[in-house]
Amino acid sequence: MTKEREQAVGCSVLANECTAFLNGTLAEYWDDKGLTVPVWAWTNLLAHGNEDRIADAVARPRCARRMARNWSVARSYLALEILGLLEESLSLEELQCEVLIPLELELSSRSEVCRWTPTHWLEVVDSALRNEHSTRL
User: Fold this and answer.
1) Band of pLDDT at residue 12, cut at 50, 70 and 90
2) Nearest-CA neighbor of 121 among 60, 61, 73, 67?
3) Under a CB-based contact definition with an 8 Å cutoff, are residues 64 and 31 in contact?
4) Cβ contacts of residue 67 below 8 Å, gap of 6+?
5) Which domain holds residue 83?
6) Cα–Cα distance between 85 and 92 in angstroms, integer?
7) Global pTM?
8) How many structural domains are present in the chain?
9) Half-sphere exposure of residue 17, counting CA atoms within 13 Å on the CB side?
């Protein structure tokens, strides 16, 4: 492969990853590529996905590889919780900006997160959502 072709492929991969990150499908993108999905990336859909995409995660939690299924199911539970919060006068944009995007960033910078189980991750995200909900009551 020529150097120019390698650069073009590299740019395409980066562009695809950026697109997946911004629309909340980064975990699926990496899982489909056969890559290990870091724990923080399971928060990506919740932090950046639109309401339809989040609802779809509730209806059809899916992952290509067996190892990621537990993460997908945990995220499905949290997606359902988020949809419930939206019915209680919170907007998705507020929830994402005030809770989920900062949480995603925090998780990506903490080294111990890589050892978390889906249950531990679910508890941390659930706690952040509940804290936000209780402060708005």
Assistant:
1) confident
2) 73
3) yes
4) none
5) 3-136
6) 9
7) 0.86
8) 1
9) 12
